[in-house]
Amino acid sequence: MPVRQLPEQIVNRIAAGEVVERPASVVKELVENAIDAGASRIDIFTDGGGRRRIGITDDGGGMTAADLALAVDRHATSKLDDEDLLQIRTLGFRGEALPSIGAVARLGITTRHAGEPHAWSLSVEAGDKSQVMPAALGHGTRVEVSDLFYATPARLKFLKTDRTEAEAIREVVRRLAMARPDIAFTLAGEERTPVTWAAALPGAAGRLTRLGDILGADFRSSAIEVRAERDNVVVEGFAAAPSLTRANALGQYLFVNGRPVRDKLILGAVRAAYSDYLPRDRHPVVALFVTLSPQEVDANVHPAKTEVRFRNAGLVRALIVHALKDGLAREGKRTAANSGGDALASFRPSFAPHPARPANWDWRSSPSYPASTRPGFDNALATAFAEPGQAAFDVGTPTADVRFQEAPSADLLDRPLGAARTQIHETYIVSQTRDGLVVVDQHAAHERIVYEKLKASLAKNGVQRQILLIPEIVELDEATVERLVDRAEELASFGLAIDSFGPGAVAVRETPSLLGKANAGALLRDLAEHMAEWDEALPLERRLMHVAATMACHGSVRAGRRLKPEEMNALLREMEDTPNSGQCNHGRPTYVELKLSDIEKLFGRR
């Protein structure tokens, strides 16, 4: 078959296959055009999930008649000052969006430039462009797209339901609205109730307002401001405390120079920063904005401009990890799931008034109750009341002496975690603060303390180790032994010295001093399970932190151990001095705080 030049219409339809994937792609391209035009307000309307109609109206600069005629031609753009593709300062620059949309749909544009006496309009149907005609419009631009993919019917078969397509449009607008809080957005359509995001004030406060409007009040209340800067690269935004998580990574919103992107490098950096706070199956909620010179990022990687490539990817990743870790550590107390809201809900009385009794019914005046329970009865006569009945209240001795400190000292009450008062179920420490109480999971709390000590010791001068008088032999399967021996050097950096002891056993010769008398067999089995999941691409630092986390779990105070009063208070004080003590290294909360005012509400005192 001979080589031939394709017709312009076919070329445009091929380009449309790259740029216009679904109705949401059309909305994205047109809204980005409105943003680049300097709009302060953008209204979006869709019908039939965008398949039947898409309307975008903005109050931007508009176009002259000559610009309008060129705008629908392939590779015509107003967003490049010259031919330097390394100086991209706009959201769109390829010059393919409008001609690609016009190639597969009915496209109508009405626009008015400030220097024109009136507006101008133009239409494109399946690639056929009309003449520019005078029109009526106050200012800005209005773009109408109808019958999407009517010129390429095969593409219609790949679209989802109207509801699904409408939700994809909503997500696109949400991301663009997060990127530009200074612009007012309205999203309306047959499938949804209209929603408006008003323009916010400049600065971090305005950005948080917009993020809260879109991501919800939970994000606003738990958001931690983060920022880091180095070599003219700035990372800023807001990250939710670890108490607010999602089951997937869809709650992570990433922006590079104002452009919403999905970048594996940034997603990996976010995951690494939260690794000490969240369980493996939970994901954080963040909105991060990376700003850097256009020459340091390639925005021309993907036809839809949803991916970017950094010249110095290592610097960007390090800044993101640093910004997030610094923010989470700075707001350490807020990172705990200690709001008490969920805990309070579990205490709500579950009973309801008897339906046959009046609201003002008083059980003390009821003739069905014995006289000994009525007002005025001599309590002395009640001594004969039911020694057998009182046995129901005998719950055994407490697991710690609740009387060890009759009146806690004022200085302890003023500490963040208060003064220890008792231990219940040999697992939870209950402490009293000046304005409430705190319930601490002793195992989770000590696990974080040991973990942070291991990290600090490794960074300073290595983990202190203890030599076993008699090496402990741990029998394992051959594959597990091989896995452990291959990582022996990494384990040795944490004070765990092992040697192969035949095909199915390992000899443990040294253990970290911090772990005390640890169960070497259980520790090695857990370490081997984690190592089986490691990818060779996993950085050494992360592998070491996994080892530290597993060791900390085995070296901490176990649930079920009875603690003395001084041990409880010592644990509370160590928690206060330990960074990130709001969660254990598996992401579980270490304590829950209940304010006295909330407790009083439970009992109707306020």
Structural write-up:
The protein is an alpha+beta fold and 606 residues long. The chain folds into 3 domains: 8-197, Heat Shock Protein 90; 204-335, Ribosomal Protein S5, domain 2, CATH 3.30.230.10; 402-606, 2-Layer Sandwich (formyl-coa transferase, domain 3), CATH 3.30.1540. It is built from 21 helices and 25 strands. The strands form 6 sheets. Strands 1, 2, 3, 4, 5, 6, 7, 8 and 9 form a 9-stranded mixed β-sheet that branches. It has a 5-stranded mixed β-sheet with strand order 10-11-16-13-14, with helices on both faces. It is elongated. The chain starts with 7 loop residues before the first helix and ends with a helix.
What layout of secondary structure does this protein have?
Layout: H1 8-19, H2 23-36, E1 41-47, E2 53-58, H3 65-71, H4 97-104, E3 106-112, E4 119-125, E5 128-129, E6 133-135, E7 140-146, H5 153-156, H6 162-179, E8 184-189, E9 192-197, H7 204-215, H8 217-222, E10 223-230, E11 233-240, E12 245-246, E13 252-256, E14 259-261, H9 264-273, E15 283-284, E16 286-291, E17 297-298, E18 309-310, H10 313-330, H11 332-335, H12 341-347, H13 387-390, H14 410-413, E19 419-424, E20 428-433, E21 436-441, H15 442-460, E22 465-475, H16 478-486, H17 488-492, E23 497-500, E24 505-512, H18 520-532, H19 540-555, H20 565-577, E25 591-595, H21 596-602
Parallel strand pairs: 1-8, 13-16
Antiparallel strand pairs: 1-2, 2-7, 3-4, 3-7, 4-5, 4-6, 8-9, 10-11, 11-16, 12-15, 13-14, 17-18, 19-20, 20-21, 21-25, 22-24, 23-24
Helix pairs in contact: 1-4, 2-6, 9-10, 15-19, 15-20, 16-18, 18-19
